[in-house]
Specification:
This protein has about 350 residues and is an alpha/beta fold. The protein contains 12 helices and 10 strands. The radius of gyration is 20 Å and the shape is globular. This is Cystathionine beta-synthase.
Amino acid sequence: MKHRNQVFDNVLDLVGNTPLIKLNKMASKFKGNFYAKVESFNPGQSSKDRIALYIIEEAEKKGILSPGDTIIETTSGNTGFSIAMVSIIKGYDCVLAVSSKSSADKIDMLKTMGAKVYVCPAHVSADDPRSYYQVAKRLHEEMKGSVYINQYFNELNIDAHYKSTGPEIWKQTEGKITHLVACSGTGGTISGTAKYLKEQNPNIKVIGVDAYGSVIKKYHETREFDEKEIYPYRIEGLGKNLIPGATDFDVIDEFVKVTDEDSAHTARLIARTEGMFVGYTSGAATQAILQLGEKGRFKKDDYVVVIYPDHGSRYMSKVYSDKWMSEQGFFDSLNEAAAQNIEYIK
Ligand code: PMP
């Protein structure tokens, strides 16, 4: 393993080995010890660097990919950025089908990283030909020598975290971890990390974080896909309107649902109290801890690890924009005044 004070051959050498950082304020009113695995320290600023590098290198090992080939993916942004980054270093073309829910910043960033981007409507069903799943599938069929990463249904997504995130957390906590809290989108992060950790200690509690408007929590509890659960929500990267094959529901003990509004305020509070500028789903995962803490779920010696998937800079036009917060109706006059904290000298 390389350390940050060494010299690196390229950015890909810096994927993984992210720090575990103590939360000193966010959960201080609860019993227990709380730490964040801060994935924005990856060179592509998110946990998706791990799966992009792992899946592409596995394809190379199997002889499926050779330089000049095209890599295709569906993505809310982070996976696309990571695949684009890996593609640059390794010499592939990168084509991305993204949801129209993704921020303009994210789309600009993907283009900056050399990717060809297709923006697809967010609020259509997964089998609609305009959905980003169907668009990616069609492009894959049309393009010779292309590989479709398909993170939602690719078991290698789970393996990437089983082989990296899980062992890192086990080592960093010296085996003391008692709870893992992680958002579930594809489910790769929580499934792979939990599988490794539970093999070391089956008593570790694994808590998934889901959005209102997503089918995941109900499916975990009933194994029923209930379309009635589906409605639009704002958090990107969390929850789903289908059941992802990259989620291993058996290693997850329970799901907690969080609202767009609570998660947004919590994300902002992390910046102001911990000095960590992290993404919307980091707010969502911390919000789940607050909800569990209010129910008295944590004990003095508990060692809770929460995964912070990405960096706050990706949400400047959304959760970190006062204008956007107001437009969503997330500000009342009280917290609007507190958040603005700005004075114009005329
Ligand atoms: N947070 C963000 C910002 C994401 O982009 C994703 C990935 N969709 C997740 C959380 C969830 O990670 P996973 O897909 O591994 O469940």
